[in-house]
Amino acid sequence: MGVDAPILYHRTYPLSSRLTYLYIPSTLFSVIEYLSKKGYSRTEAMLRMESANTDREGRPLIQRAEDLGGDKYFKAFELARGWIEENLDIYKPELKRILYPLFIYSYLNLLADCYKNESQKFFNAYKDLFIRTHESDLRVLNTLSLPEHVNSNNIAQVYRTNKYRVTLSPQAYYNLLQFLEAKDREGGTIVLSILQHHCNIRTAERGGASGSSLSLIGAALGQGLKDEDVLAEDEGIPGHNPGSANMTDSSSTVLVRLRLGHLPMDPDLASDVQNELQDLDAKNPPGEGQNTLVQEFETHIKREQSDDTPSREDMPLPPYTARDVAMEVQKVRENRDRFKIEGKTGGTGPGLSVVMFTWHNTYDSINCLDFSEDNLFAAAGTSESYIRVWSLEGRALQSILPQAADTTPLSSSRRLIGHSGPIYAVSFSPSAKNEDPDPIWPSTAPRYLVSCSADKTVRLWSLDTWTNLVIYKGHDDPVWDVTWCPFGYYFLTGSHDKTARLWSTDHISFLRMFAGHDQDVDTVCFHPNSVYVFTGSSDKTVRMWSIQTGSTVRLFTGHTGNLTSIACSPDGKTLASAADDGFIILWDLASGRRLKVMRGHSKGGIWSLSWSVESSVLVSGGADGTVRVWDVAVGNEASGPQGKVIAEGGAGTKIDGGATGAQGGSAAGGTAGVANANAGGGGKKKGKEVVVTPDQISAFPTKKSPIYKVKFTRKNLVVAGGAYLP
Amino acid sequence: MSYWNPDNVRDVAESVGISSLGDDVLQSLSRDVEYRLSQVLEEALKFMRHSKRTVLSTQDISQALRVLDVEPLYGYESTRPLRFGEASLGPGQPLFYVEDEEVDFEKLINAPLPKVPKEISFTAHWLAVEGVQPSIPQNPSSTDSRSSDLVSKAAGATTGLASISGNDNATIKPLVKHILSKELQIYFERISLAILDESNEDYRIAAFSSLRSDPGLHQLVPYFVQFISEKVTHGMKNLFVLTQMMHLASAILDNESLFIEPYIASIIPPILTCLVGRRLGDPSQPLSHYPLRDLAASLILLLTKKYAQSSHTLKPRLARTFLKHFLDPYKPLGVHYGAICGLQAIGGPEVIRVLVIPNLKAWEAVVRDESAGGEKEMVIKAVLRAVGSLEDESRRGMVNGFSEAGAEEMREKLMESVGEVIGGRIWELENMGLVKAVLECAGS
Fold first, then answer.
1. What biological-process GO terms show up in the record (chain A) (predicted)?
2. Touching check for A421 and chain B: CB below 8 Å?
3. pLDDT tens across A623-668, in order?
4. Chain A partners within 8 Å of B1 (Cβ)
5. Domain architecture of chain B: domains with CATH
6. Domains, chain A
7. How distant, in Å, are the alpha carbons of B80, B236, B290, B382 from that of B281?
8. How far A108 CA sits from the closest chain B CA (Å)?
9. B128 touches A: beta carbon within 8 Å
10. Angle between helices A135-142 and A99-112 (to 10 degrees)
């Protein structure tokens, strides 16, 4: 309201009658009449203007949605949602993606502005739209109710201190802006201000190679079509640039080049192994159609001599011993004699054999399981703070320590007692099965076990003496996961304290600390060449770290659940990650892009993943009590090159992995095609029904036994372990 | 509004000596309590997840409190879910508490020691052998209701392996439940009652005409096919039932809006039964079943006409069946009748020429026996009818006029080639064109 009006009344009427006149339109009318009679034309015009903005009762009319108080977000959100629903089908899926940030930031703003009731109402009114994709975040945010909570809650803080990144096609974006500007009084400005302050909307032509409008849809939806279920690869908090570990726009197209080849073998070790193999070949000549072990070994060595092999200095290992020679010999033999999986043929996948070990009478006290690589031992960590190791063959577990004189027969299992909290992971050091034990050869049985626990420590146990050798202290919070380096000597831990750490057995303090995740590091694994490590976190991202520099080299976002398991393929090119919402996602390491999403497990956590020797088949096991077999190749044959090497310089080659630019566009088109084919075949169904993507080869249910561990042996047999919980 | 009752906050405030607490403060505090509780729960969920459990336990809560630097609650440690009792403080004021039984110390001391819990142990079994889940007691049975959600329902899915892994066909249980609407069920019931109603012909006729023309019956086709074969199998003695079934079959075959093709294989056996069955109807009336055989033969004719194109093995298979019956001299005459009619139906003159005429002489033994008068006549008539079909074709290009001597010679030839009984009958027809046609076939 202008300032003139009160003065006007003041001047014209005695104060006592002012309010009466102001609120009764008929009196207002007589006032106007009076003014015109007296010839106060300017005052009259002013009064008419003023009164136009009041309703019959004389209260000011609200014309701008901003003035609605807490309700303004309802109006704005309804406006945007209504418009998007009405929009053309080709834009609808991508435009829908702005609704989630709009919802979250509206809600957080309401909370921060102390609109307690409105915030709850707003949340409950619209949460159903997003509950499928963002269940865990919504669950946390739903509990906020005071402005202080917004400032202290870490998830709310993550949202508020980062900009939510959404990629739209230019057409859709301009349509949106145009609409919002046209509707500025009905809430458009509110939507705009949220988008400006809290979102990072990138426009990218995702047209792909053909450029037709149809492929545009495909491309836009490619990541997003299954949008109801799966987030776009580049969407979210902190919206990283797909195919990169960089979170800023400026460096988005540059990726550190990875050395994903196998770690070359020590030449001396190689020649020793070769000599041993020659002896073996002479002793047991190969069967019909079999390679000699030496041939097998040479192809193995050759494969390692590609141009992207890391150097041995990157991962210093202790000098090799006779045991290492024996291990390598065994590995070559097992590799030759394995059950070969030639990929998917003729509509059926390979017929895998799965051995299931079921633990009984556990009362749900087993937290984790591991099988040794020679398949002779199994270890279980319990919530009762002890570890139990069994011989799978039922043999007595001998100790090299002098035994007490009592004659009680040795049991086939042993308890390792030492931790003071539930044990969350156990891992056997590398081993190999010696098929015809030669007494002159050193034992290739596992020698160590590492375990981690809620008591914040990691312990190293000797399997020769069945005693605790070392306690590694360093983590500040419960340690969630531990795993051995494929060559032994090093191991990796992930903890509630948001860090992952690399340790070597002979140092009591850690060698590297990998910090960067916003929440707990839930699961860790090594790259097969052990120069890189992977971590999966409750912040729903997976990171790849270089051991050399300790920095993130890849960041994979797109999961909507908490990561429960990750595994890197033996060929070192692909990473599989699984979350507790039942999704398994495959990632291409070189380009940093998502390859495909595999679905089949129901909710509750996929506790373990494992790759076949050929990297063509993945098995998974989880809380739903099934072991599932996945075809890795299906659905991404068409993907082609996804990133392009555009410049060579300094330390590494730079790879174009961004979605911007012509090359990036075609790459996006490629993935989009894949995802489309996937979606077409997948025929995503809505509702509670569990969706199974067509790349699942088979699923083997158990009787009420959640699967804690699945593992491919070197001969491509699958070993699975779980506890029977009636 | 908030789940946490503000009264609790007030109670706690009073217990520490703050007697008056503003309503706003109370509201804010109860909201804050709620938020803190949810934080504890979030942490506890992490512990649950890492214990690979799906049920939250009290231990998870204590661990979460410890991580959050809060003193854990003591006295709630339990490996089993706690049981809560409910007590009422007044209307709408339930109070929940952990049930804690009173233990008599005396008794506890004197009681025998509880059993040692069973030792943790493991067993091994094959969950899958070369992609197939063996059906052993350790594995869930394939009839488990879960099995249907294990396989991908999408087209192009790896169905091959799924099917051999025994997920679907160990017991024949359709993966897709066929749901028949109430109306259709009633319709089916009514129709099946109507066509078996011997007393009311109008009723039957109405039923058949409905079947012949109604466009919405596709869902019922398998049921009708099943119905036909069931009734035919169990009603061999009852000519009425058999005849009605043939009518039913013909009605659904006639209905233009039905897609019968997939069911042909299952509809043929009952028709064949009615055509070449050994014993049909009442044995005391030997001639009664011939009209049924005629009807069945005409159905075969209709079937072969309509579907021989799409199923190229249909005719040869039928022909083989008929010929087998035709050449078996020990079969009853009715079977021979049916076989001949059938042969004529499936191929017309061509089949008669190639399959029937050359075998007629050998076959004649069947009808030479004098005993079965009426039936024999029927069979011979059938043969003559079959042979007669040759003539239509051969008439063109025939030369009329031949000498008596030629005729006698021809007669001899005819007797020689097709046997005396049939040859005589053919000759009696005094149709030289036919005779010539038969001779041509026999000679070739």
1. transcription initiation at RNA polymerase II promoter
2. yes
3. 989 999 998 886 653 333 333 333 333 333 333 333 333 333 333 3
4. 117, 120
5. 6-99 (1.10.20.10), 184-347 (1.25.40.770)
6. 4-52 (no CATH), 67-203 (1.25.40.500), 267-304+315-336 (no CATH)
7. 72, 6, 10, 20
8. 15
9. yes
10. 10
